[in-house]
Structure formats: C-alpha cells, structure tokens
Design goal:
The complex is a heterodimer.
Chain A lengths: L1 H14 L5 H13 L16 H15 L4 H12 L14 H27 L8 H16 L1
Helix pairs in contact in A: 2-3
Chain B lengths: L1 H21 L20 E2 L7 E2 L9 E6 L4 H16 L4 E6 L3 H11 L6 E4 L3 H5 L7 E5 L5 E6 L4 H16 L1
Parallel strand pairs in B: 3-4, 4-5
Antiparallel strand pairs in B: 1-2, 3-6, 6-7
The chains are: A mainly alpha, B alpha/beta.
Chain lengths: 146, 174
C-alpha cells in the first residue's frame, strides 16, 4: 500500500517534470553557468525569454538522458559559441579577457611605485643661508620684544 | 602643462575605445557554426501537408536557409528583400518556420508573398537550437557539401545581399 503510494507520488512528480533532487540541483547549477542569448545579462536560470525556457527543457532532457555536465555545456558551446558561458575558457581569443585586468593592475602598481620613489628622492628642503638665518632671528627677536 | 599630457592621452585612448564600442552590436555573437556542417533535420513542410524535407536533399547546391516566423516583426521588414532575391533566381531560399502556428504561417505567406522554395515547420524550436537560433530572423548560406559558409543574425538588407551573400554564392558555385 505504502509502496503504491510512493510509486504514485513518483509518477506524479515525473509527470510534473520534476527530476530527482540531485538532478534538480545539477540543472540549476548548469543553467546558472549559461547565458540567455536573448537577454544577454541574465543567466538561463533567471531568464523568462522563450528561448531560455526551451533551453532549460533541453538541459532537463539531457540531464535525464544521463549526459555529463561537460557534454551538456559542450552541446551549448557548439551551437551558441563561448559567449553562452559566463566563464569562457582560456584560449588565444579570450586571453586578453583573462589576463587584461592583471596587466592593468600591474601597470597601476608600477606607476605607484615610480611615483613614491620619485617623491622620496626629492631634495631635502633647502637649509637657510647665514644671512637668511640672521634675518629670521631678527624678525623673531622683534616679535618677542613687542 | 607637461603633467597634463599623460592623463589627456589616456583619456583620449579611452574615448577612442568607447566610441568604437558604440558601433558594435552586442547581439551579434560570432557563430561557431560557420565552417561546420549544417545540422541535419527531417521536418514536415508547411505546404503541401504530409511532405517532409531534409537538408540532404539540397546536396550539390548552394542555398539559403532563412529562419522566420509570422510573429516576428523584423521578419516583416526583411521580407521584401527575400522576395526580391527570390525573383532574381540566383540562389534557392528555403524557410525554417520557427515556433509558429501552421495556419498563421501560411496566411502570412499568402499576405506578403512567398519567396521560399518550401518552408519546414520547426514547431517546438528544437531544430532552431541545433542551428543556434536566438534572434529571428536568421539566415544561413549553405554550400554544395552542406557546410555553413555564412550566417546573418537579424534582418537581411539589400546591402548585405549585394555585398556579402551574392559574391559568396558566386565563389561557392565555382
């Protein structure tokens, strides 16, 4: 009796399109890695575009068919290019994208070091010449007398 | 004065980058499908009912596959260009009717003219996924071996037909 109820529940959940919990988590994770090409700043998970719905259904079908994450992401890249991935792979055409920020950071640090060094190398404030010192003393002395 | 030169130069470089960025279209994503075999399919044609079509039937010919739908507004802008191209009779145009209702698609063709040798119905968009379709209309130029040689995302214009498609058709024919 209990078994029959469980089977019924399982059938109902399958009919509703729900997969096993670990599969659901995988589908969720995959759709967060993929960009919706219709509204490019949303992931497949967040987008309500019709294409996103279709692609999520495709994801679901492929997960259900037992394909690996690499195979599924490969499937998407084959059709939509690296752009579909929020984290594009490192290769010649994406090198500037990956290395660029570090190059900029290094350049900024180099400029900072250069500026600091130049500041330290600046000459000491000039020492007062004897006549200047005498004048200063005179002025200060005058001040004291008042 | 001298100190201002470096920031000014950097600023001008930045302006240059931003300015050229203004002219780029972020929707134009380079397709990984160019240079690859056109994905196979076997779909019912819109008309006559009961007939099916597979791209293999076009082996040995250079042809255009145009993705369209009656709900697609840009397709309506593009349509006269396709009709004119079909009238020139230099390259056969086949339609992939994407996520559409059969009756509406047929009514649309009746109303605006039918430039297609035939249109196949991709009702659930599954073949569209294989072709990496994300912004209807899209157009593929496929060569005699069945390899995709060119892809246009968005409407074709007379300029694109003249400058990109027709010259490529000519070289591929040879």
């Amino acid at each position: 009796m209990r078994l029959a109820a469980a089977a019924l529940l399982l059938a109902a959940s399958l009919a509703a399109g729900a997969a096993a919990p670990q599969d659901e988590a995988r589908i969720r994770a995959l759709s967060e890695k993929l960009r919706c090409l219709v509204c490019q700043n949303q992931s497949l998970a967040d987008s309500n575009a019709e294409l996103a719905t279709d692609l999520r259904r495709e994801l679901r079908a492929q997960v259900a068919a037992g394909r690996s994450d690499e195979q599924i992401l490969g499937f998407m890249v084959e059709r939509y290019g690296d752009f579909v991935l929020y984290e594009p792979p490192f290769k010649a055409s994406t090198a500037a994208l990956w290395i660029g920020p570090f190059v900029l950071l290094a350049a900024a640090l180099a400029v900072l070091v250069l500026v600091l060094r130049r500041r330290r190398a600046a000459p000491e404030p000039p020492v007062l010449a004897p006549e200047e010192r005498a004048r200063a003393a005179r002025l200060l002395g005058e001040g004291r007398e008042e | 004065m001298k100190q201002a030169i470096i920031p000014l130069a950097l600023f001008l470089v930045l302006v240059g980058f931003l300015f050229s960025g203004l002219r780029l279209d972020p929707r134009e994503v380079p397709s990984p499908l160019v240079g690859k075999a056109a994905p196979a399919f076997d779909l019912p044609v819109l008309h006559p009912p009961g007939k099916r079509f597979a791209p293999a039937e076009m082996k040995g010919r250079v042809w255009l596959l145009n993705v369209w739908a009656s709900w697609c507004v840009t397709c309506r802008d593009e349509h006269p260009v396709l009709v004119a191209l079909a009238r020139q009779d230099v390259v056969p145009i086949l339609g992939l009717n994407y996520k559409d209702q059969r009756e509406e698609a047929l009514a649309w063709l009746q109303r605006f003219g039918d430039p297609y040798r035939l249109s196949v119905a991709d009702a659930d968009g599954r073949i569209g996924i294989d072709y990496g379709v994300y912004g209807v209309p899209e157009t593929y130029l496929i060569d005699a071996e069945g390899t995709i040689r060119y892809k246009r995302i968005g409407a074709l214009t007379p300029e694109i037909v003249e400058q990109n498609i027709l010259p490529l058709v000519k070289t591929l024919r040879r």
